[in-house]
Amino acid sequence: MNLNDMTRRFLLREEKSKSAMTYLQALKETIDSLRPRTQSDYRRIEIAKQHIAEVRKITRKLQERVILLEEQVKVLGEGRE
């Protein structure tokens, strides 16, 4: 996919539904761009980064579980046919 196709899809809002991981990545990039002015701001940003990392781990595990369950449903569906 080239840049022109991506731009066209964005402008036409043809973008596929975004996953939780996409939103987490965007959130992490936003937090990384923040520049704390105080030590307490710095600590808050670091805690937010840790929370994002934990949510990413949980999301990854949930996605793996969904894939496994979808495969099981598919096998069960094939068994009924």
Write the layout of secondary structure elements.
Elements: H1 3-11, H2 20-33, H3 39-80
Task: Report on the architecture of this protein.
The structure is a single chain. The protein is mostly helical. It has helices spanning 3-11, 20-33, 39-80. Helix 2 packs antiparallel against helix 3. The longest helix has 42 residues, at 39-80. The model has no long low-confidence stretch (mean pLDDT 86).
Structural class: mainly alpha
Distance from first to last alpha carbon: 39 Å
Instruction: Return the string of H and E elements.
Output: HHH
Identify the overall geometry: flat
Strand content: under 5%
Task: Let me know the average pLDDT.
Answer: 86
Extract low-pLDDT stretches.
none
Sheet with the most strands, sense and barrel status: none
How much helical structure, as a percent, in the residues? over 70%
Tell me the total number of β-strands: 0
Salient structural properties:
0% strand, 80% helix, mainly alpha
Task: Give a summary of the structure in a few sentences.
This protein has helices spanning 3-11, 20-33, 39-80. It is mainly alpha-helical and 81 residues long. The radius of gyration is 19 Å and the shape is flat.
